[in-house]
Amino acid sequence: MRSYGQYCSIARALDVVGDRWTLLIVRELLLQGPCRFTDLKKGLPGVATNLLSTRLKELEEAGLITREDAPPPVATVLYTLSEDGLALEPVLKSLGLWGLRFMTAERPDDAFQAQWLAYAPTWFTTDADPDGPPAIIQVVASGESAVIELRGGEIHTRLGRAADPDLVLDGPPRAVLGLLTGVINLELASQLGLSVRGRRDLLTRFHPVAQDRTRTQDEHRQ
Question: Residue 217's pLDDT is what?
Fold first, then answer.
């Protein structure tokens, strides 16, 4: 494994997770849980098979993932994050929150998958009305579907379809995720092709975490 050769915690961290695809492998294991090699490959469009194998070996040697033989009917190797690997979750959340500023443009060749649609509301928003009644929101982007549930002051998500949602958001990823995370407003999202059906008032319950982060940064500058 290559090293920056610096006695610095940032450099030491990048020695372990700084290579291309490494943090995205951690992302998939955080979102999907224990994965087969084929699950990881599917969740990482564009990664070469041999490179994925190399990265998994490096992560295992670094103690960030473990592998075990799953019993029948799975009967294959499952990769799981270790305690040190799970400790990267707040790092990825912060990195993803910082990266929202670059999500204003959607490139034609960008891949998009349902698990990426599902985690964004959970990681990057909070319920602005924690005492509000439960609500179910169906989101669809590029044919990928996820369900958002507002209940108990928390935001929960899962893949798939809801039987009778209170609100349906359907459109390109830039419009759907941009609206939910506060990157764009409803007017711009509609211009980008977002279709909204049902209780629009539920949109006011999504409070972007990025707004709190910006407010805190401004207070520190004063």
Answer: 54
Strand order in the sheet with 154-159: 154-159, 144-151, 135-141, 167-171, 195-198
Evaluate if residue 1 carries a pLDDT over 80: no
pLDDT of residue 120: 93
- Whether 88 and 64 have beta carbons less than 8 Å apart is answered as yes
Q: What is the mean pLDDT of residues 190-207?
A: 96
By C-alpha distance, which of 197, 200, 126, 142 is closest to 164? 197
Backbone angles phi, psi at 121, to 5 degrees: -60, -35
pTM of the model: 0.88
Averaged pLDDT for residues 139-163: 95
| 42-66 average pLDDT score | 97
